[in-house]
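From the thread on structure requests for the teaching lab: each student submitted one protein with a one-line request. Submission from student K.M.:

"Model Gamma-glutamyl-hercynylcysteine sulfoxide hydrolase from Streptomyces chiangmaiensis, tokens only."
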Amino acid sequence: MCRHFAYLGPEEPLGRLLVEPRHSLYRQSWEPRRQRYGTVNADGFGVGWYAQADPVPARYRRMGPIWADPSFADLARVVRSGAVLAAVRDATEGCAAGEASAAPFAAGRWLFSHNGAVAGWPRSVADLARTLPPAELLSLEARTDSAIVWALVLNRLRAGDEGTQALADTVLEVAAAAPGSRLNLLLTDGRTITATAWGDTLWYFSEPGRHIVVASEPYDDDPHWHEVPDRTLLSATPTGVLLTPLKDLRDDMASSPTLGSARAGAPPSPEEPST
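Reply posted by the TA:
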């Protein structure tokens, strides 16, 4: 359910990244090749990107399918960026519709997407929701499982966790509360990409020193795409990719109150995000 995509590298037009490839995210909205759950991603879409010298990303989101939005073609043709996160949505049953439900979610310098579903939502994560400050619960963008997962991640980022630790802890916590959940998360601050493979497909394409792409599925048939094993945390920059089994992190959590940032391959901590 859903397909998402992140890119770091030289500036490119959004269309070259999201529309032109033979099996681009645009095409995956109606014809995904590797999606395990659902067949059409027509319940909204969104694109977030960073401009030079501005750490706070811009977003363009709509509640309808990406192929039905005539304005997106113009946007994709002229907007250029070296840091992009985009998603097309197949809504989880029982979740709210609307533009606010479409990824990427954002706060401060962060962009976030969730591909999957929280099993038993909303009751299964009610106890986790109670751990959030009331103001954050009242500020949720949408009544969706992805929005509550983002709130849990963001709460950790605001507490000082690095992106790798925030994603890993959240996935393990939600998976324990709601077994059977699919929790492929994608996070960027415009300098790094952090992602999890938990229940659905995740791939990356890296040209070290030039660019990195992390996506639900390859946008072409280049043999240099690498599939990320299930239950894995990915941390990437244009200079390299680090994969860490989430099982190892779960074992670390059992013996330590925090995850070691060095073990998780975390980059230097960014500025604290703000809404």
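TA comment: Residues 163-177 form the longest helix (15 residues). Residues 3-264 form a domain with the Glutamine Phosphoribosylpyrophosphate, subunit 1, domain 1 fold (CATH 3.60.20.10).
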